[in-house]
Amino acid sequence: MHLTRAPDLMFALIGLYALLVELSYGLVLVSPLARRILPTAAFLMHIGIFVFQKLLFYDLVLVQLIFLDAMKVRDALMRGLVGATKGQVAYDGGPDCGIAPTNHAVAVQEAARQRLAWPLAVSGLMAVLLISWVHRVEFYPITTWTMYASRASEAVYTHVYARYEFGAVSRVYFADAIGALTGNRARIYLRTCFIPDDRLRCERFLGAVAAAYNRRPPSAGRVTQFEIKNWSWDFRAYPSEPGRAALTGHFLFDPARNASARR
To answer: What is the C-alpha to C-alpha distance for residues 181 and 206, in angstroms, rounded to an integer?
Structure first.
């Protein structure tokens, strides 16, 4: 909220920066110069997303390391650590010296293993991320972050309100109680609130969230009810009129009543 008075130009430039990074990122496959610039630019872009939107795309931050030359980093660190104590030792091959001669073949194999370790680790990370993206796995901390990606002309979104024991009603964000629900991870559970055959899953989820809130209730008191509203906005028909969104679903959840009903 502290940026609400910032000039529109600032947000336009931030959006333009993100757009250029996203559209040009494919150049890393063919351009050495792009491989030096764009991973850093993408890293900074996702840090900016975290700072401004509180959304951490940890996988997209870490994947930039695939372009890091780990051997150069290691060599630089080693030079800094042992450079001051580096010296030469004369060895005539005699048995009384106490220094075993270096086996060149073993040294080559060890160097090859070290060179393979980093690529294999990054490849394993990429494999895990690709599998989660293809199969849309949502199991913390793995996420596909599909967000609003869809071919539909309607944007469907959900608002959740909490009613407290002293009568106050306010918009509520589940991540305030359960950090693992940051972003839109709760959507897969909230959808089930409007599916009769799967509603028990929704009620168990909301019951867990209410319990987390009520462990340390705010000044308004304990949560006594959740109200979930689904809205649909046809942005192609009304691109500049989000107020035309229609209420398509409404669900009330009473934690105390549902807890007693399950006993």
So the answer is: 12
| Better pLDDT: 82 or 217 | 217
d(CA 12, CA 31) in angstroms, rounded, equals 28
List the one residue out of 35, 207, 62 whose CA is nearest residue 124.
Answer: 62
Q: How far apart are CA 232 and CA 159, in angstroms?
A: 11
Q: Note the pLDDT tens digit of each residue in 1-17.
A: 566 677 888 888 998 99
Tokens at 91, concatenated: 């060895």
Nearest C-alpha neighbor of 249 from the set 206, 174, 192, 198: 192
Q: Which two tokens stand for residue 212?
A: 């987390």
Neighbours of 240 (CB within 10 A): 7
User: Rounded to 5 degrees, what angle do the CA atoms 87, 93, 94 make?
Assistant: 115
Q: pTM for this structure?
A: 0.54
Instruction: Please answer whether residues 70 and 76 qualify as being in contact, where contact means their C-beta atoms are separated by less than 8 angstroms.
Output: no
Dump the DSSP string for the chain: -TTTTS-HHHHHHHHHHHHHHHHHGGGGGT-HHHHHHHHHHHHHHHHHHHHHH----HHHHHGGGGGS-HHHHHHHHHHHHHGGG---------TTS--PPP-HHHHHHHHHHHHHHHHHHHHHHHHHHHHHHHTT--BTTB----TT--S-SEEEEEEEEEEETTS-EEE--GGGT-GGG-TTTTHHHHGGGG-GGGHHHHHHHHHHHHHHHHHS--TT--EEEEEEEEEEEETTTSTT-GGG-EEEEEEEE-HHHHHHHH-
